[in-house]
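Hi all, posting the design record for the shared folder.

TITLE: backbone redesign
STEP: 1 of 1
STRUCTURE INPUT:
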């Protein structure tokens, strides 16, 4: 867990036959006021700053090469006021990944007591004991910053993760475009359950406490935005979970100026603030936080990458940038060519990375639930789904499940079974969803059970190439 005093308590999803679920919680806990000359919680001198930057005359972005290449400054080129909070190495703007096991004792090391429930958590800047992540390579040609980092595991004392994180940064008008790539080379080859990721973790200073986004059912029409806050002096559980139907959330000050986070095709964000003040700079405890989040399976050998943009300006300027980007797909279209498309599994696993044109799912232990990413569609636009794959099973049916916005789980009424042939031959199955009474209105997530009532046995499997509203 990054040392921002935002504890992520990842609660296992409990999805039974009725598909109930519990969602992860976050708790922000204040700590004693630190000595300004020490790294909070470690008693070590504050690390020196070794920045490199890009500045296009509109926005300036700096990364700290002494802290793994984490973003330490975002400011207007003219006003020069830094928005990024750097109170300790777990703040900044940076990549942060999560996986099992939990509990986790790499090389016999115990985690810091505050982070004992975190598990495997490499971050760009360093660990909770004050050790810094190592920059292996970097360049800045004036147009793009590139950094290759050997990250530390946040909860442990001087324990580098068995992975590297690559970062590319460039500026475009009032926006900063960032790409991160995680390359795992873990000796532990277990496929652990999916966990929520911070894509990325963004920490801003105290004045940027107002949360702005759009959560309505008329996206990209300039409909009225949501304005809210989430603040606690002592603890916040969950901050605010936001179903952002335009794929962005902004943190702004009382004048309406701040930073927006946009991630294409991502609809779920968390945001909030903690501490006692509405004023403060990058070295103060009080901070504001936003992340775009999704559950991901991070295999021992995975290459996982994602992109996002940070937009500096007023809410109107942030939204104008978003509106100029390619729109998200209005219908579900998941083709498992080289990745899982952010699908994951409850009480199951596939055969691992690399993904080669299909999800190869063993059914030796029986049927289980595949869970799709959060999305946003209208049922009227998706009269049919097409599942392409091969099934080796005694089961005669598969099942499509779905959620609507606000559903805490896959409701027992929202599913449709369809017949399959369990002979191992690849086929395209056409599913007429107009026959399902619950398939109406706005939809937000799909689920899939490949072999209903399958009890398991050797040689049984499902190999799924695509789940799509397009043939």
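Okay, here is what came back for every position:
SEQUENCE:
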């Amino acid at each position: 867990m990054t040392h921002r005093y935002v504890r992520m308590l990842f609660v296992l999803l409990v999805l039974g036959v009725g598909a109930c679920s519990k969602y992860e919680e976050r708790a922000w806990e204040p700590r004693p006021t630190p000595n300004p000359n020490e790294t909070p919680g470690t008693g070590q001198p504050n690390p020196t700053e070794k920045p490199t930057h890009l500045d296009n005359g509109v926005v300036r972005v700096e990364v700290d090469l002494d802290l793994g290449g984490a973003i330490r400054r975002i400011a207007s080129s003219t006003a020069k006021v830094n928005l990024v909070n750097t109170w300790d190495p777990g703040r900044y703007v940076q990549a942060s990944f999560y996986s099992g096991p939990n509990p986790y004792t790499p090389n016999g090391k115990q985690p810091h007591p505050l982070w004992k429930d975190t598990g495997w958590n490499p971050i760009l800047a360093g660990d909770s004991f004050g050790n810094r992540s190592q920059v292996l390579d970097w360049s800045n040609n004036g147009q793009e910053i590139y950094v290759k980092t050997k990250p530390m595991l946040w909860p442990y004392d001087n324990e580098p993760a068995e992975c590297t994180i690559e970062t590319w940064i460039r500026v475009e008008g009032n926006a900063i475009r960032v790409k991160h790539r995680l390359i795992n080379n873990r000796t532990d080859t277990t496929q652990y359950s999916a966990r929520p990721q911070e894509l990325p973790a963004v920490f801003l200073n105290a004045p940027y406490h107002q949360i702005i986004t759009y959560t309505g059912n008329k996206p990209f029409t300039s409909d009225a935005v949501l304005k809210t806050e989430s603040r606690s002096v002592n603890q916040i559980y969950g901050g605010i979970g936001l179903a952002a139907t335009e794929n962005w959330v902004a943190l702004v000050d009382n004048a309406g100026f701040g930073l927006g986070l946009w991630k294409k095709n991502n609809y779920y964000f968390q945001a909030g603030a903690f501490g006692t003040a509405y004023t403060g700079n990058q070295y103060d405890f009080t901070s504001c936080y936003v992340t775009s989040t999704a559950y991901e399976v991070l295999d021992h050998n995975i290459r996982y990458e994602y992109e996002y943009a940070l937009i500096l300006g007023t809410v109107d300027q942030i939204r104008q940038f978003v509106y100029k980007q390619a729109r998200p797909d209005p219908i579900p279209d998941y083709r498992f060519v080289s990745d899982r498309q952010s699908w994951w599994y409850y009480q199951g696993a596939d055969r691992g990375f690399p993904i080669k044109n299909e999800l190869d799912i063993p059914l030796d232990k029986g049927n289980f639930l595949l869970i799709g990413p959060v999305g946003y569609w209208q049922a009227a636009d998706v009269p049919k789904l097409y599942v392409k794959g091969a099934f080796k099973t005694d089961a005669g049916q598969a099942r499509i499940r779905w959620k609507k916005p606000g559903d805490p789980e896959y409701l027992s009424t929202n599913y449709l079974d369809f017949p399959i042939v369990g002979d191992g031959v690849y086929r395209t199955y056409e599913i007429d969803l107009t026959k399902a009474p619950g398939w109406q209105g706005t939809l937000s997530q799909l689920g899939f059970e490949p072999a209903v009532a399958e009890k398991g046995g050797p040689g049984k499997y499902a190999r799924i190439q695509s789940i799509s509203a397009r043939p």
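COMMENT: The domain at 333-468 is CATH 2.60.120.260 (Jelly Rolls).
Let me know if anyone wants the other runs.
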